[in-house]
Write a structure and sequence with these properties.
This protein is an alpha/beta fold. 37% of the residues lie in helices and 17% in strands. The chain contains 14 helices and 17 strands. The strands form four sheets. It has a seven-stranded mixed sheet with strand order 4-12-11-10-7-5-6, sandwiched between helices. Helix 3 (69-81) packs antiparallel against helix 11 and helix 13 packs across helix 14 (390-408). The longest helix has 20 residues, at 311-330. It starts with 14 loop residues before the first helix and ends with a helix. The protein binds pyridoxal-5'-phosphate (PLP). Pyridoxal-5'-phosphate is lined by residues 115-117, 120, 148-150, 200, 204-205, 233, 235-236, 261-262.
Length: 409
């Protein structure tokens, strides 16, 4: 994208009072002293008109980058036609999106949510209902150390993030923890209370740790053997992020339940639970939510899928992923993990990720900034727009190398 040709951002009213006013926001995060006011494609502008190459994209959310024409047009058109009709009635967009997701995934039915955590919460409820109806009340779901499934009480309990177990104790019970890529540890968690297994195929928040293809295939067979549900959390990996529309396609399996979020709406909040027909045991009254299947967000998701589900688009994501990987290796930044456009680099000199991310965000005068995520003390995660250009990838790699050099001084 030719950013020099795009119009300058609107002048911020007065930057300093804006940041001071941020004290009215509860502090749940260490946020840098920047206020973003505008974005186009891979680029963001702050309140001073400085520009940044965005390789975080709202946490792997803006699949098509900032202000993508397809999403903007879909939201514009839908917002003037029908914004919301409520969960007690059908709307055309929700019906279209459910049918499209069912066709693309090979699963049968869909329940829409507002985000990823709610999708996983819905998947947990669906599995527990299935256990009550079909498995003599089995309710436990085996989950994994270092996994991340969201921030509701149940999804925090399902997560294996260190510290989550004590933060808002007591936890929701029924989520024994196994080790990723270790089937024996999964088997050790199994009892007659077990109804399923839930995992991420790439543990994104843990630092981009991939589940082995052989492990996932063995897990699928093991679930079939014991009549257990395989639940795959594709909130981060889904919608083209790893180079296939769903990551499970690369593992050659079909899950029983799949959850989506992040990239699905291309920047608007929507999640989804997809399930195979025999698993769909919710009855009227079991599950719901005021905004679920809201036509505005469904229209945005239809626009995103219209682009991302095209085979040529996904082939380009794979090529861009290769370019990013080779660039990280060529610049000697460290060991690279991940696939497609969900990658992390492990820094050889230890706990330098935060310092490098900080230096990238605060470049020398006249240089653009770069947004990258210090996902671990020694790991930087990159999750650019799926349609970023080769030049943007190369520029991000250059900015990252410069930031590393500056952070050492
Ligand atoms: C981000 C994420 C979630 C939570 O999604 P929210 O939209 O933040 O609720 C769940 N699972 C995975 C794998 C995620 O990356």
């Amino acid at each position: 994208m030719d950013v020099t040709a795009s119009p300058p951002p609107p002048p911020a009213a007065s930057p300093a009072p804006l940041l001071r006013a941020a004290s009215a926001l509860m502090r749940v995060n260490h946020r840098p002293d920047l206020v973003f006011v505008r974005g186009v494609g891979s680029w963001l502008w702050d309140q001073h008109g400085r520009r940044y190459l965005d390789f975080v994209q709202g946490w792997a959310v803006n699949a098509l980058g900032h202000a993508a024409t397809a999403v903007v047009e879909a939201v514009r058109e839908q917002s003037s036609r029908l914004l919301h009709s409520g969960p007690g009635y059908h709307n055309d967009r929700a019906i279209e999106l459910a049918a499209l997701l069912a066709r693309l995934s090979g699963l049968d039915q869909v329940f829409f949510t507002n985000n990823g955590a709610e999708a996983n919460e819905g998947a947990i409820k669906l599995a527990r209902k299935y256990g009550r109806v079909h498995r003599q009340g089995a309710f436990e779901i085996i989950t994994f150390e270092h996994g991340f499934h969201g921030r509701t009480l149940a999804t925090m309990s399902a997560s294996g993030k260190p510290g989550f177990d004590r933060l808002f104790a007591p936890q929701v019970r029924g989520f024994p923890k196994a080790r990723l890529n270790h089937l024996g540890s999964v088997e050790a968690c199994r009892s007659d209370r077990t109804v399923g297994v839930m995992l991420e195929l790439v543990q994104g928040e843990a630092g981009v740790i991939e589940a082995d293809v052989a492990f996932v295939q063995a897990l699928r067979r093991w679930c079939d053997e014991h009549a257990l549900l395989l639940i795959v959390d594709e909130v981060q990996t889904g919608i083209g992020r790893t180079g296939s529309l769903f990551a499970y396609e690369r593992h050659g399996i079909r899950p029983d339940i799949v959850t989506l979020g992040k990239g699905l709406g291309g920047g608007v909040p929507i999640g989804a639970v997809l399930a195979r027909e025999p698993v769909c045991c919710f009855e009227p009254g079991d599950q719901g939510g005021t905004f679920n299947g809201n036509p505005l967000v469904c229209a945005a998701a239809l626009a995103v899928l219209g682009e991302v589900s095209r085979p040529q688009f996904l082939a380009k994501v794979q090529r861009r992923g290769e370019r990013l990987r080779h660039g990280l290796v060529a610049r000697n930044l460290g060991e690279v993990h991940g696939s497609g456009l969900l990658q992390a680099v492990r820094l050889p000199d230890g706990d330098s990720a935060a310092a490098i991310a900080h230096a990238a965000l605060h470049p020398p005068h006249g240089q653009p900034g770069l947004l990258v995520n210090a996902v671990r003390a020694d790991k930087l995660r990159l999750m650019p727009a799926l349609n970023c250009t080769d030049e943007e990838i190369d520029q991000a790699l250059d900015l990252l190398s410069i930031a590393r050099a500056r952070s050492r001084r």
